[in-house]
Design a protein that fits this description.
By secondary structure, this protein is of the alpha+beta class. It is about 30% helix and about 25% strand. The strands form five sheets. Strands 9, 12, 15, 16, 17, 18 and 19 form a seven-stranded mixed beta sheet that branches. It has a four-stranded antiparallel beta sheet with strand order 1-8-6-3, with no helix packed on it. Strands 5-4-2-7 form a four-stranded antiparallel beta sheet, with no helix packed on it. The chain is globular and about 85 Å long.
């Protein structure tokens, strides 16, 4: 008996994906757990394995197609068996809707995800639900979707008349980044403070540990030391490691320290997460950061690699930027931006000295963190960078 295998729910609210590579062809004999296809979601490229053994009777979709969760991907059975895909109720509803030449103001399509109250509101406002993209859970249409759809739209600009243009379709990753940035900026009232930190001691500490790291085959950057200093500051100012639960009017303070590291790649921005960073030493952090960064650049991050973050660092200094205003990785409450370190003349004890200066920016959700608290958090972080973060580790290992 033929088995229809559908695009499974891979979690994290993902509702669709794009086929990027088939690993099998029609007629191939496959084993259970053999990779069938690679699908690009908004989070990562995932490999989908076959749940059964048998002959591939039909592949449903070609490379480049975007498919919703629940769509039949492959039909597997015995050679020569029928491979016709059963038509779902939703598809039948869609065909019936498409066959209707016109729709009255009060008639609403049955195939959309909307509650009876939303359907009634749409009818009252004369809104066609089939033309609305839902923003609620599972793309369910919300009241805001209805009301926003009736607002005047900005006039469409025609660029072609001014000269030659190139239209580039947004990838799943770029669409996800755009949606997440919009959600963050329109939900959390952002405020940003900037400062310059004397990182001369940090430079010396890193140079001191660099040779030891090389013997272990590890590339030691400044980030592990920054993470250690950051976590010490967070423990003194825990609201920096929190999220706002608006529905229940609660601030959720996290007692775990999972630090996201923003990584820029040719495919877009990814934020892999170093889990339980407070329990790892400088070398363990450096090794994990290197592994996650390489996985990001090679599009090999798993969804789990990017889940569970409690605070994020954006190291735009690595690409030569001094100051920036980072956008909070919502629903986190704050983000630390690290700028390009430079040697500068600084007055120390009434004498001019050349010191290494690190610019920082901290963006925070002003609903959760007040400006004064954010300043204290920044000062605590700066002071921690003047200390040997490896001393505490050595005490722990004694």
């Amino acid at each position: 008996m033929a088995t229809e295998f559908k695009f499974p729910d891979v979690g994290e609210g993902i509702t669709e994906g794009k086929i990027v590579r088939w690993h099998v062809r029609e007629g191939d004999y496959i084993k259970a757990d053999q990779t069938l296809v690679e699908i690009e979601t908004e989070k990562a490229i995932v490999e989908i394995p076959s749940p059964v053994e048998g002959t591939v009777l039909k592949l449903n979709g070609k490379v480049g197609d975007t498919i919703p969760v629940g769509t039949v991907l492959v039909v597997v059975g015995e050679k020569g068996e029928s491979a016709k895909i059963k038509e779902s109720r939703a598809e039948k509803t869609k065909e019936i809707s498409n066959a209707v030449p016109a729709m009255s103001q009060t008639a609403q399509p049955a195939g959309v995800l909307a509650t009876p109250a939303i359907r009634k509101l749409a009818a009252e406002m004369g809104v066609d639900l089939s033309k609305i993209k839902g923003t609620g859970p599972g793309r369910r249409i919300t009241e805001d979707d209805i009301r926003n759809s009736s607002k005047p739209k900005a006039p469409k600009v025609t660029f072609e008349k001014y000269g030659q243009i190139l239209k580039i379709p947004m990838t799943s990753v770029r669409k996800a980044i755009a949606d997440h940035m919009k959600l963050s900026k329109y939900t959390a009232p952002h405020s940003t403070l900037m400062d310059e930190i004397d990182a001369t001691y940090l430079v010396g500490l890193r140079n001191k540990k660099k040779a030891e790291a090389e013997k272990k085959g590890i590339k030691l950057t400044y980030l592990p030391f920054i993470i250690k200093a950051l976590i010490k500051a967070i423990k003194r100012h825990p609201y920096a490691n929190s999220s706002l639960d608006e529905e229940n009017e609660q601030i959720i303070v996290k007692s775990y320290y999972n630090i996201g590291i923003a990584v820029q790649t040719p495919y877009g921005l990814f934020v892999p997460v170093v889990k339980n960073a407070d329990k790892k030493d400088i070398f363990e952090l450096a090794k994990e950061i290197g592994t996650l960064s390489e996985k990001a650049k090679e599009r090999k991050l798993t969804i789990d690699d990017m889940k569970g973050g409690s605070f994020t660092i954006s190291n735009y200094g690595s690409i030569g930027v001094t100051f920036a205003v980072p956008i909070i990785n919502y629903p986190e409450a704050a983000i630390l931006g690290i700028g390009r370190m430079q040697d500068k003349p600084v007055v120390v004890d009434k004498k001019v000295q050349i010191r290494t200066i690190m610019p920082i920016s901290i963006s925070f959700d002003h609903r959760v963190i007040d400006g004064g608290e954010a300043a204290k958090f920044a000062n605590e972080f700066a002071m921690n960078l003047q200390e040997d973060m490896t001393i505490d580790e050595e005490k722990e290992h004694e």
